[in-house]
C-alpha cells in the first residue's frame, strides 16, 4: 500500500459550484480505501488578484494498492470533470496526484502560495520534477492550488470546519435553518467554535449566501466540537451530506513578519511595525487612512468601512504611537499609493498627548494671558506681568489601551485568527480514523 495525495483547485465559477462539494463526493467514492487524514481545506493568499471566490484548495489523502492507482485517478478526474464549472470563464480546474511521501520542496512551495504570489510555471516544474500526475483544464491555473493543497500538511496550527450540503432541489432557495439556534449554539460552544455569528451587526455567518451547495459551515477547534455544534443547530431542510475538513482557517497562516517597511511587496499578507506619522483621517466611503514609518520608509494603511467599530479604535491613534499592523498589501494604483489593508493592529506603546496651559498668576491665582510669542504673560485681574513664565505641559488621557485589536468577525478573512483562538494554537496533527468525519444525510434526519 502507498500513500496517495490528491489535490484539487479552482473548480467553481464566480457564481456557482464549490470545490469542497466535489471533495465531499469524492470521499464517498474513495471510501473503500483507508484515509490518512481528514480532507484538507487550505485557504491560499487572499491578496492574489486572480483568486477564486474563497481561494480554497482541497486535498484528500488515502492509502492505496499500487495496481489500483490508475483506476482511482481516472475516477477522480471524471468526477471533477462532471461536477466542476469547466465551461465558465475564469474557471481553470487543476488536479494533482502525488504518490508516497511529500517532498520538502512541495511543502515550501505550499507555504509560498499562502504568503506570496507564485506562478504556474513553479507548480509545473515541481509536478514534472517529482513525477506527479496532473491534469489542468482551460488555463490550468488550478494546478497551483492543487499542488499547494497537497504540500500544505497543516502540521502546525489548524482548525476544523464541518460543512453540510443541501439537496440539489433546494439549491437557490432560502436556507431553512433556525438562526436563533445558531446564536444559542454560539453561546454554548464559546471557545470551541469561532466566527459563527457577528455580534456587532447581529448577523449569522454560518450560512453562506447565494446559490452554492453549502447549507452551513461551522468552524471550530476539534472534530468533536464542530459535530456538537452542528447538533445544536435547528436544521429544517434535508441535508445531502456533511464533511469535516481540517483547515488553516483562523490561524493567521498567511501573515509573515516583514523586518522593514521598505521591504514590503505588493500582494503579501504581512505583519510590520512602525510609528504613526500621519494621523488617521477619513476619506469618502468612511474608510480610515493613516501612515506609519520606520527608519527605512513610510507606508499608508487603511481600515476600510466594513471593519465597522474597529475604526473607532484606529481613529484614536496619534503621531508617535508605536503599532504593529497586520494586513494584505494592495499595490500602488493610479489613485492610491501602496497601502496595507488592515486586518488587525497591536498597539505597542502609546505616545503621550500633551496640551499646554497658560501659567497661573503668582499673586491672585488666575490664569495669565499671553502677550504674544515670547512677550511673556499678563494677569488680567491684578495686572501682574511675567516675562519668563512659560506654558505648562499637561498630559491628556488617551482613552485607549495598548494591546491587540481585531475587527468584528464579519470583517475577518478566512485565514485571520480571531481573538478566541489565541492560546489555542495546535502543534501536532491528531487523526482519529475511527471517529466519523463525513456522512450522508443529516444526523438530525436519521
Ligand atoms: Zn493676578
The N- and C-terminal alpha carbons lie at a distance of 35 Å
Bound molecules: zinc ion
Q: Give the quaternary arrangement of the chains.
A: single chain
Beta strand %: 25-35%
Low-confidence stretches: none
Q: Could you say which structural class the secondary elements and strand pairing correspond to?
A: alpha+beta
Morphology: elongated
Largest sheet: 10 strands, mixed
Which percent range fits the helix content? 10-25%
DSSP E strands, number: 24
Instruction: Round the mean pLDDT to the nearest integer and report it.
Output: 93
Total of helices: 8
Computed Rg:
27 Å
Describe the fold and architecture.
The structure is a single chain. By secondary structure, the protein is α+β, with helices and mostly antiparallel strands. 19% of the residues lie in helices and 30% in strands. It is built from eight helices and 24 strands. Strands 1, 2, 3, 4, 5, 6, 7, 10, 11 and 24 form a ten-stranded mixed beta sheet that branches. Strands 13-14-15-17-16 form a five-stranded mixed β-barrel. Helix 1 runs antiparallel to helix 2 (69-83), helix 3 crosses helix 5 (142-151) and helix 4 (120-129) packs across helix 5 (142-151). The model has no long low-confidence stretch (mean pLDDT 93). The structure holds zinc ion. Zinc ion is lined by residues 361, 363-364, 366, 379, 381-382, 384.
Considering the chains and any ligands shown, give keywords for the structure:
446 residues; alpha+beta; elongated; binds zinc ion
Briefly summarize what is shown:
With 446 residues, the protein is of the alpha+beta class. The chain has helices at 19-29, 69-83, 104-115, 120-129, 142-151, 179-188, 223-232, 310-314; strands spanning 2-9, 40-43, 56-64, 94-99, 133-136, 159-166, 193-194, 197-198, 203-204, 214-220, 239-247, 256-257, 269-283, 287-294, 297-303, 322-330, 339-349, 353-357, 369-370, 377-378, 385-386, 392-396, 403-405, 438-440.
Amino acid at each position: 500500500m502507498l500513500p496517495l495525495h490528491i489535490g484539487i483547485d479552482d473548480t467553481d465559477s464566480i457564481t456557482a459550484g464549490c470545490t469542497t462539494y466535489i471533495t465531499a463526493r469524492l470521499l464517498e467514492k474513495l471510501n473503500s480505501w483507508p484515509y490518512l487524514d481528514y480532507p484538507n481545506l487550505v485557504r491560499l493568499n487572499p491578496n492574489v488578484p486572480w483568486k477564486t471566490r474563497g481561494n480554497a484548495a482541497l486535498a484528500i489523502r488515502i492509502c492505496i494498492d499500487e495496481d489500483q492507482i490508475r483506476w482511482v485517478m481516472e475516477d477522480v478526474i471524471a468526477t471533477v470533470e462532471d461536477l466542476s464549472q469547466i465551461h465558465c470563464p475564469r474557471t481553470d480546474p487543476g488536479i494533482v496526484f502525488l504518490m508516497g511521501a511529500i517532498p520538502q520542496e512541495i511543502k515550501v512551495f505550499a507555504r509560498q502560495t499562502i504568503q506570496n504570489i507564485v506562478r504556474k510555471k513553479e507548480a509545473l516544474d515541481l509536478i514534472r520534477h517529482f513525477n506527479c500526475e496532473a491534469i489542468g483544464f482551460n488555463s490550468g491555473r488550478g494546478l497551483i492550488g492543487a499542488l499547494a493543497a497537497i504540500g500544505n500538511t497543516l502540521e502546525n496550527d489548524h482548525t476544523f470546519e464541518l460543512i453540510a450540503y443541501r439537496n440539489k432541489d433546494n439549491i437557490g432557495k432560502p436556507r431553512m435553518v433556525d438562526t436563533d439556534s445558531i446564536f444559542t449554539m454560539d453561546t454554548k460552544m464559546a471557545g470551541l467554535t469561532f466566527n459563527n455569528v457577528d455580534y456587532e451587526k447581529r448577523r449569522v455567518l454560518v450560512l453562506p449566501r447565494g446559490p452554492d451547495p453549502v447549507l452551513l459551515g461551522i468552524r471550530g477547534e476539534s472534530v468533536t466540537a464542530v459535530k456538537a455544534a452542528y447538533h445544536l443547530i435547528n436544521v429544517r431542510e434535508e441535508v445531502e451530506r456533511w464533511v469535516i475538513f481540517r483547515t488553516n482557517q483562523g490561524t493567521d497562516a498567511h501573515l509573515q513578519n516583514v523586518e522593514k517597511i521598505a521591504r514590503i511587496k505588493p500582494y503579501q499578507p504581512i505583519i510590520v511595525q512602525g510609528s504613526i506619522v500621519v494621523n488617521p483621517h477619513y476619506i469618502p466611503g468612511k474608510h480610515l487612512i493613516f501612515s506609519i514609518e520606520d527608519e527605512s520608509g513610510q507606508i499608508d494603511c487603511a481600515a476600510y468601512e466594513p471593519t465597522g467599530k474597529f475604526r473607532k479604535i484606529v481613529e484614536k491613534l496619534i503621531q508617535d504611537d508605536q503599532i504593529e499592523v497586520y494586513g494584505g498589501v494592495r499595490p500602488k494604483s493610479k489613485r492610491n499609493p501602496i497601502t496595507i489593508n488592515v486586518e488587525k493592529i497591536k498597539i505597542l506603546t502609546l505616545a503621550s498627548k500633551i496640551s499646554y496651559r497658560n501659567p497661573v498668576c503668582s499673586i491672585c491665582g488666575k490664569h495669565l494671558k499671553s502677550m504674544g510669542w515670547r512677550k511673556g504673560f499678563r494677569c488680567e485681574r491684578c495686572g501682574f506681568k511675567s516675562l519668563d513664565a512659560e506654558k505648562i505641559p499637561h498630559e491628556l488621557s488617551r482613552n485607549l489601551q495598548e494591546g491587540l485589536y481585531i475587527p468584528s468577525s464579519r470583517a475577518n478573512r478566512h485565514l485571520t485568527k480571531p481573538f478566541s483562538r489565541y492560546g489555542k494554537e495546535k502543534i501536532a496533527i491528531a487523526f482519529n480514523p475511527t471517529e466519523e468525519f463525513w456522512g450522508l444525510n443529516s444526523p438530525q434526519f436519521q
